[in-house]
Amino acid sequence: MFRKSFTRKCLCVILHAIAISGAMAEDLPKLIAHRGASHEAPENTMAAFRLAWEQGADGIEADFLLSKDGQVVCIHDKDTKKTGSQNLLVSNSTLKELRAIEYGSWKHPKFKGESIPILSDILDALPQDKWFFLEIKDTEKIVMPIAEILRARQANKDRVVIISFNGEVIKKCREILPEYRTCLLHSLKDFRENGQAEKYLAQLRASQCQGLAYKEDPAIPAKWLTKAVDEDGLLATWTVNSPEPAIRAIGCGVDFIITDRPRSLRAELKASLKK
Predict the structure, then answer these.
(1) What is the domain extent for residue 135?
(2) Buried-most residue among 58, 94, 128, 275 (CB within 10 A)?
(3) In CATH, what number is assigned to the domain containing residue 268?
């Protein structure tokens, strides 16, 4: 069970009204490094993941697409324009072609030469006690290749969580990978508009997900989030890089905070909550 007892009471979401002891400041939700420690290192690279672990992040989040030759590659966009030294369409490129370009110098010259990782690279390096939020950016076709890799690497079922914005992908994961937990990603945009809360709840139920990863927004009440994930469901929020929205999310009972700044945010939260 992941929901902490003090968060179920819907703590106040504004910092100056939170009466949390120093001990609770040590008991923060798990901090998950968004595409690795992507504030300081090039996103979705081994450099970013290694830095996240070095900074004490409780886990990492990474994005995956399928290459032309069926490799599960770690990249957010459907092409390499943003992070690669050349622009290739991932689905039309082989792993060899994707690895012929580099993915680090756009962030800083010291990262020049970073390669695009594949899922097995990350699993081989993943510390046993760290969480891994595996985001599927592709269609259902990628689920079976992911399943084969997770099982071949004996990935920790207690620490790997599969996430996607696509409800059909989540359903396919529940069918093919029932041993791994899933969370539906959702922006919950325009939550307060008439009928939206009920619509989003129906989408969650239809996906058969075991949790929700939502975009942090003060418009979304803790009571609805608790209902959305039930007692044992996972609750995560993204992408939170400063104390105020993080504290608001803690007040809503989140288990995980996905952030670009794991080390800095942890220090800032501990300082804020001890006041």
Answers:
(1) 7-273
(2) 58
(3) 3.20.20.190
Q: Number of structural domains, the chain?
A: 1
Q: 241 in a domain, yes or no?
A: yes
Predicted TM-score (pTM) of this structure: 0.92
Nearest CA among 33, 200, 48 for reference residue 117: 48
For the chain, the DSSP string reads --S-TTGGG---SSGGG----HHHHTSPPEEEEETTTTTTS-TTSHHHHHHHHHTT-SEEEEEEEE-TTS-EEE-SSSBSTTTSSS--BGGGS-HHHHTTS-SSTTT-GGGTTPPPPBHHHHHHH--TTSEEEEEE-S-GGGHHHHHHHHHHTT--TTTEEEEES-HHHHHHHHHH-TTSEEEEEE--TTTTSTTHHHHHHHHHHHHT-SEEEEE--TTS-HHHHHHHHTTT-EEEEE---SHHHHHHHHHTT-SEEEES-HHHHHHHHHHHHT-
Angle at 8 between CA 6 and CA 12, to 5 degrees: 75
pLDDT higher than 60, residue 120: yes
* Identity of the residue numbered 171: K
Q: Is 1 inside a domain boundary?
A: no
Asked whether residue 158 is domain-assigned, the answer is yes
pLDDT digits (tens, 9 = 90+) for 17-41: 443 444 355 689 999 999 999 999 9
List, for residues 187-219, the tens digit of each pLDDT value.
Answer: 999 999 999 999 999 999 999 999 999 999 999
Q: Report yes or no on 221 lying in a domain.
A: yes
